[in-house]
Write a structure and sequence with these properties.
homotetramer; alpha/beta; Rossmann fold; 2 domains; 11 helices; globular
Chain lengths: ~350, ~350, ~350, ~350
């Protein structure tokens, strides 16, 4: 079959023929219907992390076309599903403890040597395949993967109903984290960025107050909204070293910081600033246990990811889609490729 | 001044003249604007818990008309506020630990010998007085007290985003618990009662699935919605002994029960049924720390209590209001008295 | 090989020839060196839960004599080990969540149709087999299984350093729970029973204050020790309905109850008594994740189970051992069978 | 009366006459019996944080000699006590939330303009005064203050029974943190320093494995002890920037870091190193709620601070005591001044 593959550093990807996958016991065969393009796919293209021929893509929804032997009850041919892309060793210590995302043996879609999903058919373990609610489209289903990062961040924060959160960085991950934080109990999100179009979009997604930190001081806004007490939670989603170092300033005593973005370099972390507020600092690595939860919130209307799907391309336009994604305008959040 | 007072068991209350209150240091003087009638007020009338002359009412919003000496900054004359009715000893061990609602020394509005708020003016500690957001009316402000019970229950549950909750009992407390659970991260609430009008109202408040347990089996509904796994949380708000004993049946492994309703008699509690699911069982007594959180969720639009205020009376109609509340029709949730 | 098997209700067990087990991939073969007799083994003999021929025993330590294909690194022939007797389905939802003990598919040693360990050789998954520290004997290793129940109870309590705990019931499970509670951070345990010899033994195990509730009132003792505040934790290990109903009386505001014992009938549970203290009530079903933790505490000298191994029998005395265990004197805690 | 006062930067302190304190309502008057010298006292002498005449000292035990009006029941003249030196505003938001140590209004002994305890008599709020168990001396009582820091760190870690902890830095705070961690449920502590005499002393305090990081690699020791999994908790007590940056290396997946020491400069903090293990990072600022817990553990014999009191001086030797403390030999941990 044909697949969207990586060929060479800094070069556009190509559509090539790849081998058909064969299902193992406990697996299902899926027809891919839609797939999102993630920053990590782009990094592969730009920085050359993979060998030529690597199939890209790990954000995905589709339809079950066959069941392997021993696949659990609850799934059947024709089910509309999305899938969790990281598969751990079921017998590892991390998996046994319920933190399977931290298992070093995890095999993750489109992370070499594992191929990705930008091809008509894939196989996947049934235990990591989740039915879409009837009112959720394939396009929305392919958004569950990035949303899962925000859901996991919201889980780690252990939000108490009515918390006020700062989300720093209005990229795709900041957006889904804001949605998850609001669905997860926050009364309000204060969102920061320096790109006004992103902030303008964010402000339409719910009780989100945009703060352009090129023009306004975050702590002023937070202090005004909280009578000087500070924000209960800061989700750092920008990956910017300076933003990541500044998280304790807008935080309330006893508050929580969740580091979601991944700065390339170590940051200048003030232990005494964190101590004076006894901050709890959490760190997220992908996600665990959140796919059914994200789908439940989407199905009941508490999370709507449709405004984040800003750009759609056909499978034959895959090369153009990646080209677009590399130069994404500030008003775009997520580009997806549709397969039929 | 004139106040709505309790006179005699099983008799309607009366409007009588009572002494004007005088503010102590750290207190504020408030003009009462609206007050809700609570089941506990009715119990006082029906069961005779109080001495004749007891002023009733503890659900309240109003306006600051004077500040006592040493009242903290942040409040000023003219502020629209609601107030938390239980005042602990600030030096008790429970208060120091942050569980001030469990302090045996708590003085609570309208709990003898403390008078209630159904009178034009009251004094209250500034530390337990909270500003209403601009978009929240006095009537909604007077709903914060019952809502606080639901908020506290949601807090105790430690909801994880996407949880599915059962709320058993669609009375006022069941209603506010459902609202708090949804605002606090639940994806869906399954609400039970035997009175269809209450369930019909509940179904309009959000992703709430009503189950008339006189006609339908709760576990069937839960199993269908959760593929047989069970509900993450059961909020028991009916106070019915049989319902309270049955909480473990619809619960998932590792799930949480929160006992909010107060059965009059001990219930038949199956430890082995709770053990096989390793249920965590929480109990709430009033609330603590939730007023600002409830107000934040109301202010940002995540909780709307207006549909619950089904019946309004003027202050001069106080006697009729109590009479109505005692025989409340099943389609009513909360009766309030407006003072001007 | 020869094994200790159940034959008939209310009859002593017998030693009979059973088939040799064969190792599957990921399993290890173990020479059984010592096994404890548990109340559940006795129940099988007394109440006839099993088919004739059932091999008994699930508390066990031994030596690895062979490794199946694909057994993980870290274990080798000659290793002295003990084993966790419940094996879940690694792909179940409960296992994925880290609560594998709640997986309905768990296969548990000596729970029909699974045979037990009272035989010279058994096979077991390597992932549930744990090395004994050098200073821990096989007899102590066979105590890890009952100790695991106490460890799990201590985990569920989420002990804060310095907590004062009540352990009601000084049977084997009460004893190991007291040891786990003390090792897990409690400053003191108050232990109740009506059998004075059990209490006398308990008092030698650490800072444990024995209370014979036939002679003394528990709440008096607790109030004296805690200046009237109450105990932070109550571990109910007696399984007695009356004791289980009375847990809230000695408890402090905000305290924790852990139901470890399993009353045969539902108890009379006072929700209002639990609410006034906002008790958190936890329930344990076997254990999860605690074997390595129990072994670490035993290895470092923080838990010493040797005083609990009160009676030892040879394998040929197995029938007499069970006979003894059924009529265990109050000064005995655990009878074990040694295999060589 | 006579008191040990600070006079001038880098100069020894002096003994001077100061005014007698007068008790306010709710306070007790205490005869000081013993006081420890803390690093923060020394900083005041060395760096000149205070005005001339400042009385030093905040680690203290003594005897009640008088009760102010309205002092709570439970304390009486003649009681042997120690006291928590930080007194919050009982009506502040932080205090109400139970995190009174984070209240910016805290008044702390020997923190200008509040005088310290190195004088014969002081007054203190009864609510922050705690009775010593009968078997605990005044000298041990004066150790509760530094021990409280370790207790609070152990609380923040939320130790699960059997955890293995690293304590980096074998100064006084590292020592008390190790004691609290072991009493609080850890099976073993691995303690690091570069001063061998400190490590040699630490090794006598319990199951503590000393690691001289000038000679040995911490991660090698941790990996060997944990089969490569990593330590459950790292308590960073050295305040050394390099040690504080390196905490994630020996940590297990899902592990906890508690920053206790206070580096002077921001550290180079690798968010990605913390993310790959999803570390939870906690920070402590003094302590809250732990005095009764520390005393309970000392009273029951689970914590013994006597080996840490390495050097004693009389009140008249106060000047020499401070001189000694500034140049403390590596084999010393805590110098105390006795008052009679």
């Amino acid at each position: 079959m044909r697949a969207a593959v990586y060929l060479e550093k800094n070069k556009p990807l190509a559509v090539q023929t790849v081998a058909d996958p064969t299902p193992a016991p406990g697996q299902v065969v899926l027809a891919v219907k839609g797939a999102g393009i993630c920053g990590s796919d782009l990094h592969m293209v730009q920085y050359g992390f993979a060998a030529p021929g690597q199939v890209l893509g790990h954000e995905f929804a589709g339809e079950i076309v066959a069941l392997g032997a021993g696949a659990p009850s609850g799934l059947k041919v024709g089910d509309r599903v999305c899938m969790e892309p990281g598969i751990p060793d079921p017998n590892s210590k991390a998996t046994q403890l319920g933190i399977y995302n931290l298992d070093p043996a995890v095999r993750f879609w489109a992370t070499p040597p594992v191929h990705g999903v930008l091809r008509p058919t894939v196989v996947h373990p049934a235990a990591f395949t989740f039915k879409l609610p009837d009112n959720i489209s394939f396009a929305e289903g392919a958004m569950v993967e990035p949303l899962a990062v925000g859901m996991h961040a919201a889980n780690k924060a252990r939000i108490r109903p009515g918390d006020i959160a700062v989300v720093s960085g209005a990229g795709p991950i900041g957006m889904v984290t804001a949605l998850a934080a609001l669905a997860g109990g926050c009364s309000q999100v204060i969102m920061t960025d320096v790109q006004q179009p992103k902030l303008d979009l964010a402000a339409t997604l719910g009780p989100i107050k945009p703060v352009n930190v090129a023009k306004e001081k975050l702590t002023d806004v937070v202090n005004k909204l909280t009578d000087g007490w500070g924000a209960d939670i800061v989700f750092e989603c920008s990956g910017n070293e300076k933003a990541a170092a500044g998280v304790f300033e807008p935080l309330c005593p006893g508050g929580v910081v969740v580091y979601v973005g991944i700065p390339l370099e170590p940051i200048a972390y003030s232990i005494s600033a964190a101590q004076i507020k006894e901050a709890r600092v959490e760190h997220v690595f992908r996600y665990a246990h959140v796919y059914p939860r994200a789908l439940a919130l989407m199905g009941s209307g508490k999370i709507d990811v449709k405004p984040l799907i800003t750009d759609k391309f056909g499978f034959k336009e895959s090369v153009a889609a990646f080209d677009f994604a590399v130069k994404m305008p500030p008003s775009s959040v997520k580009a997806q490729i549709e397969l039929s």
